[in-house]
């Protein structure tokens, strides 16, 4: 099986990557570099009509990557975006980290009985994560699915963290970020961290977030309650 990275050159797909039912993703190597080829599959009858007005899913993803780059946030470089048959596709370079945030967390902080050095490292990461998401929102940028596994985490220098955002189809920028979008992102991040962190960890991350959004500090308790309420509603919806 092959993916076409350029005309006339067949590049072997080294592995199929787990993805949603509405996409096919392959990891491939070309000229000693790693790339990811993502096919976006039609979601419903209205998708082609939506493509006319909003662009294809690949085009929207490309715009999301460009938006992050232009605002100084990490995201894998897009090599090409296009359309083939009924599917549209995008090819990106791999993340610098080459590991999703959740996998990085599990490998770095495997259990509750951590040493003082490991706890210090985790607190540093929580601080930087909160500040980075806070900077994202302070710039008016909303990410459509802000989960740990939709970001890469890398640290080449101890105590200095680099984050890369992927799955940018719905990433967009507002003049002022609407509260509903802010709440959605914060709940997504909190939910993805729930089984990996303590409540104290998540509060430490949120406090770092507030440093970048100081206008929210007076309403800190209200925002915590809003996030908790949204997560409770989602949990009840899943049970029903």
Task: Note down, in words, how this protein is organized.
Helix 4 (116-138) crosses helix 6 (199-212) and helix 5 packs across helix 7 (220-239). A hairpin with a 2-residue loop joins strand 8 (151-157) and strand 9. The protein is globular. 42% of the residues lie in helices and 25% in strands. It is an alpha+beta fold and 240 residues long. It folds into two domains: 2-93, Phosphorylase Kinase, domain 1; 101-239, Transferase(Phosphotransferase), domain 1, CATH 1.10.510. It starts with a strand and ends with a helix. It has seven helices and ten strands. The strands form three sheets. Strands 1-2-3-4-6-5 form a six-stranded antiparallel β-sheet, covered by helices on one side. Residues 1-8 have low confidence and may be disordered.
């Amino acid at each position: 099986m092959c993916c076409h990275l350029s005309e006339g050159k067949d590049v072997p797909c080294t592995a199929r990557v787990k993805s949603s039912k509405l996409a096919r993703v392959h990891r491939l190597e070309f000229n000693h570099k790693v790339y990811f080829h993502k096919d976006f599959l039609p979601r419903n009858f209205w998708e082609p009509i939506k493509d006319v007005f909003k662009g294809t899913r690949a085009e929207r993803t490309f715009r999301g990557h460009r938006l992050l780059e232009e605002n100084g946030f990490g995201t894998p470089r897009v090599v090409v975006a296009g359309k083939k048959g009924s599917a549209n596709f995008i090819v990106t370079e791999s993340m610098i980290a080459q590991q999703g945030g959740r996998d990085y967390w599990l490998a770095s902080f495997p259990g509750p009985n951590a040493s003082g050095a490991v706890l210090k490292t985790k607190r540093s990461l929580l601080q930087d994560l909160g500040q980075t998401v806070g900077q994202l929102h302070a710039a008016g940028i909303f990410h459509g699915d802000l989960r740990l596994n939709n970001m890469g985490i890398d640290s080449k220098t101890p105590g200095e963290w680099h984050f890369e955002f992927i799955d940018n189809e719905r990433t967009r920028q507002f003049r002022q970020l609407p509260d509903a979008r802010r709440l959605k992102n914060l709940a997504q991040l909190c939910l993805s961290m729930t089984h990996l962190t303590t409540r104290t960890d998540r509060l430490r991350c949120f406090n770092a977030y507030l440093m970048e959004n100081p206008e929210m500090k007076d309403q800190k308790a209200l925002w915590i309650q809003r996030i908790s309420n949204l997560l409770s509603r989602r949990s009840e919806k899943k049970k029903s």
